[in-house]
Amino acid sequence: MLRDTLTVLVIDENRIRASIIEAGLREAGHDRVILVHDVNGIARKIEDLQPDVIVIDLENPNRDMLEHLFQLTRTLGRPIAMFVDRADASSIQSAIEAGVSAYIVDGLKKERVKHILDVAVSRFNAFSKLQRELADAKSALEERKVIERAKGILMKMRNIPEEEAFALLRQTAMNEKKKLADIAQSIVTAANLLM
Amino acid sequence: MTTDISDRKKATAPASVRPEGTRIVRAGFIPLVDASVLIAAGEFGFARREGITLDLAKDTSWANVRDRLAFRMFDVAHMLSPMPVASMLGLGSNPSPTIAPFALNRGGNAITVSTRLYQRMQETGGLSGDDSALANAHALAGVIAEMKARGEPLPRFGVTYPFSSHNYEFRYWLAAGGIDPDADTRLVVVPPPMTSDALAAGAIDGFCVGAPWNMVASERGVGRIVAAKQDLWPSAPEKVVGMRPNWAESNPETVSRLIVALDAAASWCDRPENRDALSEVLADQRYVGAPVDIIRRVLTGEFTIDPQGHRRVIDDYFVFHAKHANYPKPSQALWIYSQMVRWGQIAPSKAAEKAAASAYRPDLYRTALGFKDAVDDFGTEGVAENDRFIDGFTFDPAEIETYVERFPVRSHAGRSTSDDI
């Protein structure tokens, strides 16, 4: 059984994403997953670990370095770039869109590697989604802060209660066909200039 | 017009190429000064004048550029001159047929050694400081002989991409000095932006890369430039425009118009009065994203070659158009192939020769530009007075195997034990 286990090396400078991929691969039954965040000394690591599959993100400039390494290393076969089945356009597409690349080291069954790649792709996408959500949440929080500040400025300058200040903001946004947060931002900016 | 890869997730449908109106050509590039012609064609209206919208996409590695071109995410791409040759020979991790109908430039590369190693070269080889690239190589050979005699560790040199002009140039220079790159040095892989740090830290003793990394190392006082690409073989092509042969066949009109636009852009890039405008655009984050004064000096080839401030102006450090620089000459593709044979990347055969020569397509260049000048596509290289190889060899594309065998230093099949030092 152990002999059948593939060793997967994941090279990713982004530690969180690397952990997410690792978890995904382990869930899918791949126990021998090694994470590398720093490419220093990668040649030695590859020689020691003898991975069957190397997963690396497409935005990593060290891909070129790896390709040269494959040429120089004698103990390693000549790995081929993933994209598993060249005829399978949709899987290539999804891998590139997700930003994943993988290298297959010699004589492996395509199907088993495809599974690893599929897991990596879905985990990459999950990570991007997480990042987007985090960015959205952050900007929502920022917007709320700006609106609060604008409301405070209006209340103070016009001497009106909170509800009225908010209504005024919303009405102005509707009249000018702008986002509430944008109107709030211009009030804050103007106030900073004037006060 | 430029789009970052990360923003291009949706741009996956093939470019709509209609017989009339605007044609969109998606072009991948690596942020380097030698992408100038492509960038200028997009930024200064040369593409638009030919009815082409050049959608420039910045990428991070040559492997990405190769893969994205192969999988139709790019129509054309900025490539290292050996990449289409390697692709046609089925070498590398993801070979897919690629042709080059246009070369983007000559020059731009250099070889740098650490100031420490250079001092030793001066002591052992009696260098004056203004020596030729060949004298420098001989001096290094002397240092290596001394290192071997004393049982010191061999020097380590940084290399980047296996099918790069840098790889072959570095090996050519070492070998011209009598050094066997595989047996007398340790080659380690270092990404170009890390070369000067690696040199400063003593992790490597030298490297061969493109601009501006040599200048960066010498300005920081950690390295000394010992040879420029021009010193090795002046007319060697550096970067080319690569495309899929089937895309070129289905879009002949677009290919022609693109070549016309690139030709005009290249000629514009060569004119000194345009270098300031070019530098400004290249400095932008969307393109090379480096300080404008460094780019300007790199373009003119004004080098500070050592920490003492010795200067060297390399004439024609970048040639974008002059001297038929854009002509994709099959003899040059064959020279690259000869180096692949020399260093054991491929076994020689007539079929391989044919495949290598087919990577460069002067026919497409001639058709597009109505170019009628006589050029001997398979003529002997390194004959003209101002176009010599550093070791004085000449290259006859009809006699590749004899040519390779004449090199005293080359990779020998079957010799494997000496590599494990």
Structural notes for this entry:
The complex is a heterodimer of chains A (195) and B (421). Chain A has 195 residues and is α/β, with parallel strands linked by helices. Chain A has two domains: 2-133, Periplasmic binding protein-like II (D-Maltodextrin-Binding Protein, domain 2, 3-Layer(aba) Sandwich), CATH 3.40.190.10; 136-194, Arc Repressor Mutant, subunit A (Orthogonal Bundle). Chain A is built from seven helices and five strands, in the order E-H-E-H-E-H-E-H-E-H-H-H. Chain A has helices spanning 15-27, 42-49, 63-72, 89-98, 110-158, 162-175, 180-194, and strands at residues 8-11, 33-36, 53-57, 80-81, 100-104. A five-stranded mixed sheet of chain A has the order 2-1-3-5-4, sandwiched between helices. In chain A, helix 4 crosses helix 5 (110-158) and helix 5 packs across helix 7 (180-194). The longest helix of chain A is centred in the last third of the chain and has 49 residues, at 110-158. The mean pLDDT of chain A is 81. With 421 residues, chain B is α/β, with parallel strands linked by helices. Chain B has two domains: 2-105 and 237-290 and 327-332 and 339-369, Periplasmic binding protein-like II (D-Maltodextrin-Binding Protein, domain 2, 3-Layer(aba) Sandwich); 109-235, Periplasmic binding protein-like II (D-Maltodextrin-Binding Protein, domain 2). Helices cover 40% and strands 16% of the residues of chain B. Chain B has 19 helices and 15 strands. In chain B, the strands form four sheets. A six-stranded mixed sheet of chain B has the order 1-3-2-4-12-5, sandwiched between helices. Chain B has a five-stranded mixed sheet with strand order 9-8-10-7-11, with helices on both faces. In chain B, strands 6-15 form a two-stranded antiparallel sheet. In chain B, helix 5 (115-125) crosses helix 6 (133-149) and helix 6 (133-149) packs across helix 7 (165-176). Chain B is globular and about 65 Å long. The relative contact order of chain B is 0.16. Classes of the chains: A alpha/beta (195), B alpha/beta (421). The A-B interface holds A 39, 43, 58-72, 74, 78-81, 83, 92-93, 96-97, 101, 103 and B 5-6, 9, 12, 60-64, 67-68, 71, 73, 92-94, 159-162, 167, 187-191, 193, 345, 416, 419.
